[in-house]
Structure formats: structure tokens, C-alpha cells
Amino acid sequence: MAADLKPRAKDPKPLFGAAVKPRRVLLELSQEELAWRAGLHRTYGSDVERGARNLSLESICKLASALEIPAVSLLSDSENVPGHRANSRPTQSIDGPVVMLTYSREDRDVIESYRVGVNGYVVKPVDFEKFSDAITRLGSYWLQVNHSPA
């Protein structure tokens, strides 16, 4: 009887599949290619997106790696995970420095930013005058002080 009174949680399998599909589509991967990149059976991608698979932690990590995002981005509402956007397009090629300009001071965000290839990580001041000064100094650094490979 007591079990009948417990609120039932949503089945997480379809929710996980719903997080995987937009990222896969954004990367222009077929379900089969995603499975191949993750080292999983070719039908696995379809099963995941339909919510038909109860994934292991290992499979979640493999899929996240194949999707080029942290596993946490697939496991939670990405809007509530600082520094992570599950469906943002990965940078293909940029001429010049890439600077992460953010409010986050979290070590994990700094580490992840440098891991994906940013050249600088700057925490934005909230005050407009300080922000304006920081942008001016940042521009001077990248244009006058920093030496990039030719």
C-alpha cells in the first residue's frame, strides 16, 4: 500500500534520448555513426533516442565523448549547469584567439574551457565601467602584447 502513495518519477530513458538527439543532429551524425564513434552497437543510437535503453554509466560517458560534450550535459538540464550548453555548435576553425568571457569563476569551467581550446579565460566584471576597462585591456593584450604563431 505505501508504495502506491509514492510519487512516480518520470522515466529518465526518454529524457536522456531527448538530450542526445539535438546534439547528434547538430553535429550532423547519423544514429549509426554516433554509435560507431562511441564504440557501441550500430542500433544503440536509435534505441537511446527512443528511450528503449537503460544505459550504463560507461555507455553514457562513451556517448558524451562521441558527442564532444561532458556527460553532465546529457544528464541534467543544461541551462542549470554553469558553463555547459549541450546543443552549442563546436568551433571548427577560427583565425585568431578564442577568449572565454564569462561570469563563472568555477574551476571546472576554467578547466573545461582550456580543454576545448580557448586561448584565454576572463571573468567579466559586473560593473559597466570595470567591464569596459577590462575589454579595452583585453584587446590591447591580444593585439599588442601577445605573440601568436604565424
Description:
This protein is mainly alpha-helical and 150 residues long. It folds into two domains: 70 residues, 434 Repressor (Amino-terminal Domain), CATH 1.10.260; 47 residues, no CATH class. Helices cover 50% and strands 5% of the residues. It has eight helices and two strands; from the N terminus they run ααααααβαβα. It has a two-stranded parallel ribbon. Helix 2 crosses helix 4 and helix 3 packs across helix 5. It starts with a helix and ends in a 5-residue tail after the last helix.
Number of domains: 2
**Order of secondary-structure elements:** HHHHHHEHEH
Assign a percent range to the helix content: 40-55%
Q: Give the biggest beta sheet.
A: 2 strands, parallel
CATH architecture assignment name of the largest domain: Orthogonal Bundle
CATH fold naming of the largest domain:
434 Repressor (Amino-terminal Domain)
Structural class: mainly alpha
* Count of helix runs: 8
Tell me, briefly, the overall form: elongated
How far apart, in Å, are the first and last alpha carbons? 73 Å
| C-alpha-based Rg, rounded | 20 Å
User: What percentage of the residues does DSSP assign to strands (E)?
Assistant: 5-15%
- Detail the poorly predicted runs: 77-87
Q: In the CATH hierarchy, what is the class of the largest domain?
A: Mainly Alpha
Lateral strand order in the biggest sheet: 1-2
Mean of all residue-level pLDDT scores: 77
